[in-house]
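Q: Two folds, back to back.
A: First:
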Amino acid sequence: MRQILAALFLVTVTVGAAPLARAQTQHTERDLSASARASVAQAMYASTATSAAIERAADARISEQRRQIEAMQTRLEQLGGSNAALEAQITVAQERFVQDLVARDRAYAQEIAVFRNALTNIASTPEGARALRRFNSGDEVGALAILDDLRAAHDRARQARSQAELEIDNRRIALLHLETRARTRLGAQYANAGTFLSDAQERTDDEADALILQGDLAGARRRLLSSLAARVRDAANQADNRFLRADVANLHDRIGDVASALGEHISAIEHYRAALALRRDLVASDPEAALLQRAIGVGLYKLARTPNAGVTWAEVASQFETMNALGILAMHDSWALDEFRRRAAAEAESSP
C-alpha cells in the first residue's frame, strides 16, 4: 500500500450527528439501503487493497470478472448513470469479485474486512452515504464538506462517549484517510522520484500506515515526525529538489491531519501552515501546477475548519477562484467552489 503520495485530510467526523446509541452501533451491509450498499461495494472494489490483490492473483478468471464489471460500468455511463437494475447487477458483481479475492488471499481478506467495516459504518446514515458517493466520484473536498457541516453536533455527542468508543471512531476516520492518501497523487509530476527515499524512510512510513490501520494515531504521529526530520535534512542538502520539498509538505500535512483527529488543534495548525508555505513556494515558479494549486486550496480549507486558525472561508473561496480563472479547476471541484462561496457570504453576513 505504500506509495509516495500526499495526505489529503482526515475526516474529523465519520457517521455524522447520529443519536448516541446509533453512533455506537456496528452496522452490517444488510442494514444499508441499496444505494449505500452500492457505494460500499464500489469503494471496496476500487480500493488500493483490491488492486494489490488483483496483481497478486492475476489469472484468467479474475481478469474476465473485471472485464465484465467494467463493461457494465461503461454501459451505465452510456445510460446517463441511472439504471436501478444495472446498478444492482454491478453491486452484486463487485461484491462477488471481492469475495473471490478474499477466498484466494488471506492477507487481503484481513485487510478488506477492516476497510469494509469502516465503510459500512460511514454509509449507515444518509449524510455518510452521500459523502461516500462523493468520495467514490473523486470529490474528496465535497465529501468532507458534507460531513464538516455535522461536526459541531457530533462533537457534542463525543463528550458523552467513552475513550474506547472514541478510539473505535478514530480508527474509522483513519481508515478512510489512509485510502484517500493511497488514491491521491498530490504533485504527480514527482511520481517517479520515489527512489530518493531511503529504505529506512520507506519502513518508517509503512509503520505509520500500519499504526493508522490499528487506530493508534499517537503512534503514527511519532513515526511521521521521525520521517519528517529525515526528509527535512534531505531537502536541506538538495535545495533544488522540488520533489523532496513537496514530500516535506505532504508529511507536514499528514501530521496535521493526525493532530486534528486527536483534537490537538494548535499542533495541527502549525503543520498545516508549514505545508501551505512550502506549497506556495513551489507553485510560485509554476502557477498552473493544478495539483499543487489544489493542495493549497485544500490546505486553506483545513485551516478554515480548524478552531482559531485565523483563515476565513473567503480565503478558501479566493484560492478556488484563482484555480478557476487559470482554467485548472477540476470539474468535480466546481461544487466545492460554490460551497466555499456560500460559506464566505454567510461568514461576511455574520461578521460585526
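A: Second:
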Amino acid sequence: MPRTERTASRLRVLIVDQHEVSRGAIRALLRTEGLDVVADVASTAQALALGLTASPDIAIVDVGKRLDEAITGARALAGLPSAPTVLLTSSAPTVGELGGFTFVAKPDICAARLRFAMRPETQHREPHMSMQTYLDNITEKTGKTPDELIELLRAEGVLTPGWKAGAVLAWLKEHYGLGHGHAMAIVATIKKQAEPEPIADDRISRHFTGPKSSWRPVYDELVRSISAFGNDTDVNPGATYLSLRRAGKKFAIVQVTADRLDVGIKLKDTASGGRLEPAGSWNRMVTHRVRVRAPGDVDGELLSWLETAYARV
C-alpha cells in the first residue's frame, strides 16, 4: 500500500521495547486512538520474525542503552516486506546521529505523531532492502547461505534445545564478522524455521493475497512460458519474492505488489534501456528490473531477456 494511502487507513503498528510496562502503555494508548497494534515485543530479533507475517506499517523502536544497536535494528526492520516507517524512541533525550531515522520521545507518542512521521516529506531514510535481499547479502559476505550457517551453529553446539539468541549472535559475529543486524536476521530465520513449513503451493499463494490476487493469472502465464526454456526450471518461494531457477540456480525473481509484478533479471554486462531498468537498491541479487503493469507486458521482449538470463546460469 502506498505510504500516502496508509496514513488515511488504520495503521498497523509494531512496538519494540525491552520494558514490558512501556510496551503496555504505548499499546493501550495507540489502540485507544484507533490504531492496530499488531505486536509488541522485547527485541528486534523477535520483531523481525513476527514482521514477516504481521506486515506493520510503522515500527516504534526503543533506543535502550545502545544507540548504535538500535539503529542497526531499525535498518533491518525497515527492510521487512511491508517496508514500515521506523521511529526511534526513548524516555530520555537522545543525542548522537540517528542514522536518518525520526526520533519521538515516549511521552510524545500518539496517533497524530505516527501519521505525521509517515508523510513523504518527513522521510529521509536510506533506501531499504527486503528481508530476502538482506539474507542474500549475508551469503555474499560470508560465502555461506543462512541454512548453511544454521547447520554450522548446530554442529558447533550453539544451536541446541533452549538456545539463546545472545550466544547465536556472538558466534556469528566472532566467526563470520556479521554485524548485529545481519546476525539478528539469522536469528529471525531460525525462529521462522521452527514454525510448521507450508507446502510449496501455499508458499506461492501467500504472495497473492488481498489486492495482489489479481496478478496470479499473469504470474502463472509467465511461469508457463519460462518452463518452455527447459525441464530444469522451477520456482522457489521466498519470504518477499519468488525465485525463478535453472537447476537450482537463480536467474530471475518476481515480486508481487498490488498494482504490478516486478521481474528482476540477472543480466550482467547488459545495458539498461526502455523497460529494462537497472535494479539498483531494489534488489542487489539481480541486475535489472522490468515492471509488469498489464498482462500484455509478459511479451516476447520480456521472455527474451529471461531466456538470455536462463542460458547464462
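Q: And?
A: The two ends are 34 Å apart (CA to CA).
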